[in-house]
Request: fold
Amino acid sequence: MNSNKRKRLSPKQGHRIYLAALFLVTTIALYFALPQEARFRYEYQKGRPWMHTTLFAPYNFAVLKSDSEINHEKDSLLKEQIPYLVYADSVTKVKMVSLSIDIDRIKPSKANGSLQLTALKLKLTEMYHQIYEVGILDQNFINNSSSFKKKSLKILRNNIGKESQITSLFTLKSAYNEIKSQLDELKSAHPEWISYIENFQPETYLVSNLILDGERNRQMEKKLLENLSTNHGIVQEGERIISQGDIVSAQTFNILESFRITFEKNRGENSKYVMVILGRAVLVVMLLVTLYLFLLNIRRKVMRSKRDISFLMITLTAMIVCCSMVIRLGTFDIYVVPFTALALIIRTFLDTRVAIFVNTIAALIVGFMVANGYEFVLLQIVVGSLAVISLNKMQKREQFIFTAIIVFISYAVIYIGISLIQEANLSAVEWIKMKWFATNALLTLMTYPLIYLLEKTFGFVSDVTLIELTYTNHKLLKRLAMDAPGTMHHSLQVANLSEMAVAKIGGNPLLVRAGALYHDIGKIVNSGYFIENQIIGINPHDDLSSEDSAAIIIEHVERGVELARKHKLPEQIIDFIKTHHGTTKTGYFYQKYLNDNSLDEETENVFSYKGPIPTTRETAVVMLADSIEAASRSLLVKNSENIRNLVENIFRQKVELGQLEYAPLTFKDIRVLKDFFHEKLINIYHIRVDYPEIKN
Reply:
């Protein structure tokens, strides 16, 4: 067969290939996100019975000490270490030279003043020399409370170490006090020196000359810690670790943790590692198959949309990869990751059931990475579900703050409950977790700006955006109210009817209201050609042919799309503008033309809207409400029978013309809508009683 004549793929086949490629890429990404080590098969909790069969050691392994034990032993060893300080001769010499120079600069006040200054200089030099010979401690050493509390230290002078008691050495403060005391004695013994001593500043010539030797201390610490043992002993191959039904004590828990760590670090033989690889692949594939079957059977609409399914798989993968990175870094606790953000984001753009199900799948995958998988999965499923339910319809920004509070409280309460089951002691609860839960709740607030980013990236429309679009002070709606007040009133009526109608059959009332408010914005251009905006007695169509009048009327759809795109309205709103007339005809001018002319196919197209027809419940409801609201105004007698006939006729016409062919409306939906429109129009056009005539 000629390659140029190959049959092209149908859209359905292309979509299937896209779905297969998307799920394959997601599977690969999640596979590499999972831990590369073999996974420990047993789940256990301290203080709970061992639910598995009796466990024997398959090989020799060390019983590791806990981090707290190792840190305690480190502290004990470091307390015994004697710190090293270096005697800085150069510092002493500089200060002594400075002292000599400053005294030489003093001018004698008496005839024999030079002799007095020389004697004073010798005395001061001797005082400072004695203090420096003993040594003044480094201020950094003093600030280090753990080092300063030690009784002794070693002073290195000319590479010779000498052990000294800390109490025998000076600090800057004690050295100053010693000099001050000796100066007071000199003033008593030598009154002739008083004038010189009173102007003398002893602190100027004091400086620490015992400097902490950081490098040598680090080497000594390293050498000391090299001998620190990190295990309590060895469990021999074949030795019983725990029997079925035994309570997991603190000691047994430590042995099990040691076995788990050794097992996960040791990949074993190549054949065993192949089995680990195969197991990871099976886990990821089965969970994604579960997600696929759920969407295929419960939410087929998501599967049909490339945008929706791509968004779902990207957000799922991003959250799992983020958790994997936090686990591998080990800097933060896994609960710092705002896991509930995944469910909240999906709930915002899709629906509650999909959000909870995807949150469960993600929790199961991440639960395989963390140490206590059961605890993690339980927390994330419950908290994620509560967060989604609490958010409900995201119509106010304050709802995210309320949801963040719910997230923190849920995490805290459930975690405390699990801890009490495990430890049976409130004091044993790791309260540090509350810090991570609080951070998690605060990071959940970042979901709001992230939603805006995803909204623009994937072309979604959130409830908050829809609410903002329904404000009547929106620039486009204000212009509609100014230039086409009759159309604005009609749009408000259609919006009210559509919003309540779609709530009866199931749909998005906010989307319907926004779409109905903007469906006729094209009438801003040439507003006077539409009857609801005309002044009584003035009709510009009187001077136009039926074809020209129809062209102006039909043009309001195209003009509406242009205005909507100019003001950057979402495509979902533009769909209401395009579809609210479908492919119907301009009834009045079409009939007027038929009365005077014969009709051919080409001329018939002149009077037809270009479509497309509605493909969603929301757009179909707006089309029906638009036609019914407009037609009801022409009824001369607005009673129950006439309104019922009007509603029935409009529904029958739309069905006969194929306008509802692609709209997902059931027979039940149509019956509910007919009854609703009939009831509401009667309420709108209710008959008022005549007030009695005023005689007095």
